[in-house]
Amino acid sequence: MPEPSSAPVHVTVTGAAGQVAYATLFRIAAGEMLGPDTPVVLRLLEVEPAMDALEGVAMELQDGAFPLLADVVTTSSAETAFEGTSWALLLGASPRTAGMERGDLLTANAGLFAPQGRAIAAGAAADVRVLVVGNPCNTNCLIAASHAPDVPRDRWFAMTRLDENRAKAQLAHRAGVSVAQVTNTAIWGNHSATQYPDAAHALIGGRPAPEVIADDAWLDGEFVSVVQQRGAAIVAARGKSSAGSAASGVIDSVRSIAEGTPEGDWTSLGVISGGEYGVPEGLVFSYPVESDGRGWKVAEGLKHDAAAQRRLDATIEELVKEREGVADLLK
Ligand code: NAD
Ligand code: LMR
Fold first, then answer.
1. 40 pLDDT above the threshold of 90
2. How far is 234 from 218, CA to CA, in rounded Å?
């Protein structure tokens, strides 16, 4: 096999001894995220008590003998973890347990994101892009970004691609087609039970999903609630929150940002709102996002009926409340 030729890209993963990281790291090392020609240095951040476990993960990464894995750095220092990094994947945060909403994690997790934002601002590469996964990811992203005012606003993302993938899978299953046939599936708003999974603009085999599915009651009812509640259903079934599917969401998100979205399609990402679709400016809100690999924009011109607008208003309201709840952590 030829040696990879380009300089390695530094990728930081926080919470690197956690379960989402365990499902993600080996896929990054195998080239699934940045491609088969891009060597990577993994910069792994953990809290001090988890350093032994992290060393075990590093040993396993070494034992994978991945040709693209140029180096693994393990550290409990955020400054070291983010030094020179081009991709900061913020997984490190407590997960919820049964009976909790993701927003209930704000008290436990929000405080982690201000110092990480500052460390990214201080030491990351000029091209850094940040994907926040730790919940509640929209508001945690907002906190981190507010502590890194010099990092451009279009570099900050919160992960709602897992919700999009869930929505696609539900539509494909109902229509009896492959997920590859389902495109233009948008998640709007918060990565929470108020999110709006939008089937109205989705296409199945290039035709409007509502026409193919021909069951508005299912689309407005069960489809929306299954996607909104899927994370909780997994916690209830597994006793732990999603990890393998979350890792897929991470890989898919980064690929869509870095490689671009297919012509005429989009990916769902929480981004810092510029006020599009009536969302208050500055909230981290999930939109359908079109990327060309160099930059991105929110998909334009999508129309929402009154019922969809009510769903958008509900998720906006929740995000505004979350922002108010962390006002003392915002800079
Ligand atoms: P986990 O408990 O298995 O792992 C979290 C890890 O983060 C732990 O090892 C912990 O030591 C570490 N950590 C805590 N504080 C840290 C800090 N300040 N710096 C570095 N590391 C730190 O949890 P998990 O199942 O891997 O989930 C991680 C987070 O991702 C949770 O908040 C979960 O809710 C969230 N999540 C989000 C999505 C999404 O779609 N956005 C999907 C799945 C999980
Ligand atoms: C998910 O959607 O699976 C994650 O956000 C974990 C959770 O708490 O639901």
1. yes
2. 21
